[in-house]
Structures are given as C-alpha cells and as structure tokens.
Amino acid sequence: MAATALAFKGLSRRFGPVRALVDASAEVEGGGILSVRGPNGCGKSTLLRCLAGLLRPDRGTIAARERGRELASDERRSRVGYVAPDVAFYDELSGRENLRLYSRLRGLPPGRGEILLERLGLAGERPFHAMSSGMRQRLRWAFALLHAPDILLLDEPFQNFDAAGERAARELLAERLAAGALAVVASPSDVALPRVAGELLLGG
Amino acid sequence: MSSSWAAEAAAVFVKDWRCELRTRHAVATLALFALTTLLVASLVLGPIGNDAEMSRRVVPVLVWLIVLFAAAAGLPRAFVHEEESRTAIALRLAARPSAVFAGKLVHIATLVAAIEAIVAPLAVALFDLRVAAAAELVAALAAGGLAIAAATTLLAAIVAQGRGASTLFAVLALPVLLPALALAVAATRVALTGVAEGNLLTLLLLYDGSVVVAGFLLFPAIWNP
Fold first, then answer.
1. Which residues of A touch B22 (CB under 8 A)?
2. How far is B96 from chain A (nearest CA, A)?
3. Residue B37 contacts residue B68 (beta carbons within 8 Å)
4. Count of alpha carbons within 13 angstroms of residue B179, beta-carbon side
5. C-beta of residue B207 within 8 angstroms of C-beta of residue B200
C-alpha cells in the first residue's frame, strides 16, 4: 500500500445557480498522477480547490490518507502543494522574500527556497508585481514544492512556461512522484504526463 | 519540520509591516487624515489654549474620533487586500488561522498605536492641555487602541469574505465599536481632568479581552471554508 492516498466521491459544488462541479469521483495513490481533463468551465479548478481545502464542496467526501491514517481537513491543507493560476504572492516583496516568508510560516530553512529558485531558473530578486507570467509560474512551483509535499494539486501547471521552465518543472514533478507523492493534474487539453494512474473526464 | 505558532504569527506581522513600509499606503493615508483633522479642529474650535475646561471635554472625543475614522479608512485593507490580490490562498495553505489572526492583530494594533503617538501629543500641544494623570492617559490610549484594533481586525476578516466590503464594515463596526469608544473617551477625559468616574480602565480591558478571545474563536471559521 502506498504511503499517501487521496480519494474523493460524489463531489459537487454550486456557485449560486451555476453547477460548477457535478458528482466527481476518483482516487489516486502515492507515486501516481490522476489526470483531470475537460473543457473550460467544467469544474477542474473547483475540484482542485475542494481537494486543497480551500473550498467546501456542497456534497461528497474527500479522504486523504498518510501511512494508513486519515488526515483531517486542516492537516490535508498543510500537506498540499498547490499550483494554480489564481495563486498570487506579495507584490511588494521579491520572489526570494516571498519564498522566505512561506519558509518561515512552514518552519523550513531558507536554503530550500534557494535550491528551488535555482532549479527553476528564477533569479528571485525581482518584485512579484514586476515578474512576467512565466516567472510567476516558476514562483508558484517553488512555493508549491517548498515543503516537499506528498499531495500535489496542479491546475494547468505548465501554462506560460518557456521550454526550460517546463523542463525544470517536469523534473521536479518526477522527483516528487519518485519520492512517493501523488499528483492531481488538471488541464483543458491532452498534456503528456508521466506515471498516469488514472483519468477523470469532467463535463464530458 | 514544523514552525511554532509564535514564529508563524511573527512572520505574518513582519510581512505586513514590510509591505506597508515599502508602499506606505496605510501609514501615509492615516497620518495625513489624522494631522489634517486635528489641525483643522484646533483652528476652528477657537484660539488654541482658550477655555481649558471645554478643551478637556472636547479633545478626548476628537482624538478618539480621529483614531476611529483613521482605522475605519485604512484597516479593512488588512484582509480585503489579501483577498483581492489573491495572496490569501497561499497564506491559507501555509499558516495556521490563529497565527494569521494574531499577526494581523499585532500589526493593526501597532498601526493604531502609531496614529495615537502622533495624534495625542499633538492634541495636548495644540489645545494647551494639562494632563492630570499621564500614566492613566497612556493606559487609556493603549487599552482603547487595542479595543479598536481587535474589533477592526475581526470585522475586516468578516467583510473580506463578501462583496460590498466597505459598506458592510461600516454597518458592523458601529455596534461593536460604540461601547469601546465611549469607554475610551471617558477614560481619556478622566486622565486629563484627574476626576475619577468609576473603573473605566478595567471595563476597557475587559472589552479588549472579550474581543480578542472572540477573535481567536471565530477567526478559523471565517478564514477557512
């Protein structure tokens, strides 16, 4: 049995009259990727927000296990590495300062952020407000991987990257999977992914 | 490795001040508002230094209204800005809710203290007031400032979750802040005149304790879904 596992059943979420996510169910274990696909507006981002503990589903259950023990919602939130277009950082701080802040919040040494900046090819001196969209995406990856999470929730994770950025992110993803982490990857189109253990098609 | 609660709260506090000092958004707005209001009031209310008795009655109200309006104008930004700029997502994932509340509360309390540090000495000087009990004045300012900071931190967190944040803040702030303001004004007047009016400072501290405890209890449910 894998050390980490994530399962969800019958997840649904409405925003007023809009049914953003309807009856989504799947499961994935450590070392594997659950690929979530579907057209724009089918609920991929809503699903990932629910799994991250950032949004409460109207119906359905989410169960995350770590070495056989089920994680509470707060524990799950703290173990998640989350990359999504709606994640932003402090405009007034540089990339390095932003990562140092999250390192302090998570009780990590600042060196971990430095390694990730280097791996992702991000200088780290530029303030967040002055970063290009590709640099912002690199910083999102660094933030998500800072605490070496066992649950990766990746919403359109390779968007805005140049070839070098995508290569670095894919290498880091492969390393986390090899270390026993699981990933849920949402994208509107067919993206080549390693170690795909399952697929979920939304809005099909 | 996991961080201590105090380290998380300190990180939020330091981050808020670092961002604030780089933009000077709140500090500049609040200081300008406080100074302008006080100077205009001191000019309009007659020649400075006249009618000491009236000044002792009017100045406490004036000082606390300036602190309140400065707070109402600038402090909702604490959480509304986190939501609007979408930095709240990363903060939710990385920090415990109670540590976020504590960090924000201390940041806002120190902002209010900074406003008071400008307004109170200036008011004493412009109105040529004699302070009967300086230690009690400092205590009234500290306890009243904490009351305003704690209440506005909690209210700002609530209104940041909905639309029409500014209007909602104003509506919610009135009943919550009215008792604190009445007590703070009375305690400041007592410090200026030296005439005791019951144990106002104790009541103010009780209010502080109640709002801070309520904040720590309610905030996790407000902050996380």
1. 92
2. 9
3. no
4. 14
5. no
Burial class (CB in 10 A: 0-12, 13-18, 19+), B146: buried
Where do the structural domains in chain B lie, given as residue ranges? 2-223
How far apart, in whole angstroms, are the C-alpha atoms of residue A35 and residue B44?
A: 69
Q: Would you write out chain B's pLDDT as a tens digit for each of its 225 residues? A: 567 999 999 999 999 999 988 887 777 777 888 888 888 888 877 555 567 777 788 889 999 998 888 777 666 667 888 988 999 999 999 999 999 999 999 999 998 998 899 899 998 888 888 888 999 999 999 999 999 999 989 888 888 877 666 677 777 777 888 999 999 999 999 998 888 777 899 999 999 999 999 999 999 988 986
| Of B162, B137, B190, B7, residue with least CA distance to B79 | B162
Domains of chain A in sequence order: 1-80+150-204 (3.40.50.300), 88-148 (no CATH)
- Extract the tokens encoding B22: 């780089």
Q: Which one-letter DSSP state was computed for residue B132? A: S
What is the complex's ipTM, to 2 decimals? 0.93
Q: How far apart are CA B20 and CA A109, in angstroms?
A: 25
Indicate which of B4, B84, B93, B107 best probes the interface with A, i.e. most A CBs within 10 Å of its own CB.
Answer: B93
Q: Is A104 left (phi over 0), alpha (psi -120 to 50) or beta?
A: alpha
- A154 neighbourhood in chain B, CB within 8 Å: none
pTM: 0.90
Strands of the sheet with A33-37, listed across from one edge:
A80-83, A151-155, A182-187, A33-37, A196-201
What DSSP designation does A94 have?
Answer: B
**Chain A residues touching chain B at CB-CB below 8 Å:** 52-56, 74, 77-78, 80, 82, 84, 86-93, 97, 101-102, 104-109, 143
Is the four-CA dihedral B166, B170, B173, B178 of positive or negative sign? positive
